[in-house]
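Long-time lurker, first post. I've been practising inverse folding by hand and with some scripts of my own, and I keep getting stuck on stretches where the C-alpha cells seem ambiguous. Below is the full C-alpha cell string for one chain I'm working on. Before anyone asks, I'm not after the true native sequence, just a reasonable design that respects the backbone. If someone could post their per-position residues I'd love to compare against what I wrote down in my notebook.
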C-alpha cells in the first residue's frame, strides 16, 4: 500500500514569522527541514508527501518549492499567494513553471471576519487559481463552517479540501454542531477532507484514540474513502505526540476496511487530488 502524507510543514524557525508557536509549543520552536523528516517517513513506510505553507508569504512558497526540487519524496507543494491582490494574474504567471506547485492555502482560521472567504476579491482569486488547475486547502475552525458552506456552494465543482477535519474542539468533546455542518458540506462531492491535525485539537497530555474515534466516525460516515486523505501535520503534531502515534491512529481505525478503501485514505486520494489531475 502506497502511503502519502498529505499535510506537513517545513520551516526555519523565527519567533516573529512563526509567532503562533507560543511557549506551550516550545518543542517545535526550532528548525524542521527535510533532513529531519526523511528518516521519520522511512520508519513509517511513507513514500511521498505534500508540503503545506505555515506562513503567509510568497517567500515561504518559494522555500517549499526549493525543498521539493531537492527532495524526491516531496511530491507537491501547497503554497500561499495573496488571492485578493490586484496583480494576482501576474504573480501566478511568475509561478507557472513550478511543476510541483499543486495548490494554495490561506490561514483562514486566523481571520477575525467570519465572512472572509466570501469577500468578492478572495472569491475572484479562487476562480483564477482553479482556472489554472490548482487545488485549494481550506483551513478553518468549526465556527467558520457556515461561510465555508456558502463558499463551496459558489464553487460546486472545484477541488477543495477541508484541512484537519475543520479542527473540532476534541479536548472539550464538542461534536454535534460541527458534525451537522460537516455532513452538510460532505453533500458536495467535489469537497475532500484531510484526516489530520486531530491530536492537537485533543488534550495534548492525555488524549487517547477513543477520544478521537467519534470525530473519525462522522467524517468516514459522510465522506467516502476516495474523498478522505491521511495527513500527519508534522511537526506540529509533536506538541501532543509523535508521528508513529498519528499514523497508527488512522491505520488502526481503518484496519477492517477493504484493502482498496485503506489504500484510498492512506495515499490514493492524495495522489488523485493533488497529483493525477494537476497540470504537471
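-- Answer (accepted) --
I ran through it position by position. Result:
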Amino acid at each position: 500500500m502506497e502511503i502519502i502524507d498529505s499535510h506537513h510543514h517545513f520551516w526555519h524557525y523565527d519567533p516573529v514569522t512563526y509567532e503562533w508557536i507560543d511557549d506551550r509549543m516550545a518543542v517545535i520552536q526550532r528548525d524542521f527541514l527535510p533532513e529531519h523528516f526523511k528518516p521519520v517517513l522511512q520508519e513509517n513506510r511513507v513514500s511521498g508527501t505534500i508540503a503545506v505553507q505555515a506562513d503567509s508569504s510568497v517567500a515561504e512558497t518559494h522555500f517549499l518549492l526549493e525543498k521539493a526540487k531537492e527532495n524526491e519524496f516531496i511530491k507537491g507543494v501547497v503554497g500561499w499567494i495573496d488571492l485578493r491582490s490586484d496583480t494576482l494574474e501576474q504573480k501566478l504567471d511568475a509561478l507557472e513553471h513550478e511543476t510541483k506547485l499543486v495548490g494554495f492555502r490561506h490561514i483562514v482560521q486566523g481571520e477575525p471576519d467570519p465572512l472572509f472567504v466570501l469577500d468578492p476579491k478572495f472569491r475572484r482569486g479562487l476562480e483564477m487559481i482553479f482556472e489554472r488547475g490548482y487545488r485549494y486547502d481550506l483551513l478553518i475552525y468549526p465556527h467558520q463552517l457556515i461561510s465555508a458552506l456558502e463558499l463551496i456552494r459558489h464553487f460546486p465543482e472545484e477541488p477543495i479540501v477541508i484541512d484537519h477535519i475543520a479542527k473540532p474542539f476534541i479536548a472539550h468533546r464538542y461534536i454535534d454542531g460541527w458534525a451537522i455542518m460537516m455532513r452538510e458540506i460532505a453533500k458536495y462531492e467535489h469537497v475532500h477532507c484531510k484526516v489530520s491535525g486531530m491530536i492537537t485539537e485533543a488534550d495534548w497530555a492525555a488524549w487517547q484514540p477513543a477520544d478521537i474515534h467519534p470525530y473519525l466516525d462522522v467524517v468516514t460516515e459522510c465522506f467516502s474513502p476516495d474523498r478522505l486523505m491521511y495527513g500527519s501535520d508534522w511537526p506540529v503534531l509533536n506538541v501532543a505526540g509523535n508521528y508513529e502515534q498519528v499514523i497508527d491512529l488512522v491505520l488502526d481505525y481503518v484496519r477492517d476496511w477493504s484493502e482498496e478503501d485503506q489504500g484510498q485514505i492512506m495515499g490514493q486520494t492524495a495522489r488523485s487530488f493533488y497529483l493525477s489531475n494537476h497540470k504537471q
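A couple of notes from the structure itself: Residues 4-276 form a domain with the TIM Barrel fold (CATH 3.20.20.140). The beta strands are 4-8, 48-52, 74-79, 101-106, 135-138, 160-162, 191-195, 228-230. Happy to go over any region you disagree with.
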